[in-house]
# Entry
Amino acid sequence: MLAPRKIERIMLIYPPVRAGTFYDKMATQPMGLSYLAAVLRDRYQVKILDAAVLGYDQERPVNWNFMEYGLSYQQIIKEVEKFQPQVVGISCIFSAALPVVAEICKNVKKLSADIITVTGGTHPSFLPEDSFRRAPELDFIIKSEGELSFLELLAALEKGTSLEQVDGLAWKENGQVRQTPKTRWVENLDQLPFPARDLLPLEEYFKINVPFMFYSRHPRNVSFCSSRGCPFNCAFCSSCNHWGNRVRYRSVENALAEMRELKDRYQVREIKFEEDNLLLNKERAKKLFRAMIEEKFNFHWNMPNGTYIMSLLDQELVRLMKESGCYEVILAFESGCQEVLDNIIHKPLDLSKTERVIKNLRDNDIDIHAFFIVGFPGETREQIKQTFRFARTAGLDKGYVFMFNPLPGSALYKECIDKGYYDPELVFQANYANTACTTSEF
# Structure
């Protein structure tokens, strides 16, 4: 049992970004923190500090391969000191962010050892022991989807009750890492408040206008999420484990209400559907796009995460996408070799049908970009060459080829560790333009 803690103020930090020196910098609105803040502020004073966007022009070398941009640690701690929070939550979406999270936690504890430090995101969710080892001043890890678990943690801390009742939590106790499994998800997404965008420096994102690695049609663009979860089990991806292996959809009416707020309150002109399966339920997608047309939002929109490609065989769906403002589609092929798709990464994609998909998009004047990954364990050089041949001949406007790096929480991560293909110490130096994974063929 813990002694009860009084909690009034919570600061949520999106940390400075570490990225390859050859990468274009991005200023992406932190959707996870925005949703979390919206849920928490009914009970607590909440502040979001996006250190990446507020210090976008401040760059620091990390090594020959990496640089860091964002507010300095001294600037971050000054903001913490001004707000005087009892809890500091720090986002850790990518593995490369963990050393940054560790440094922030260390500085927060120097300010006051009583401040509770919390993180969440893919790396800490799936590798909690590693995360606590690398970030010794970190107190708690919220695993996977965070809204319900964070509220449960805060309630337990305030009441001094057992942490064993908090779903999807990791913590340290007597020098050991303790965990509870992730079993509960937000079943009805309509019950969540809209993201707390009023706590974000939106005009800064609009001014920088680099929300992802792709261009935007209009600078006043925001990230948008109408669903969570993925029913597929692609071996290279951890999404189904992080967000749950079934898709949960917001109602069309609820999504439209948020779109009205975006247009009327924030004068948004473009939305980025930041989700994995916008098009998986084709009838629901059609209903949404028809409603967007009827509402005369006149948004531009795209899907920077990719989408379920086979749905694009539906000509009516593609037509409605265009009429509702879609200007670009990312096709996450991953491989141009059917054997790799079927037998190595287990992605449900029939390459023989992609010519029709591309024709449907061409007929509706939608730009076609695509993702490819090379260097999977078990992938031969000839199969890699097939991917490059496919990318050259598929009729794409742009193709992006990344090197395979095992993602914590994915099946291939475990395989690479077990077979000695991958040094987990290099995870913080890897990015999609180089790799810390070595196989017999790559």
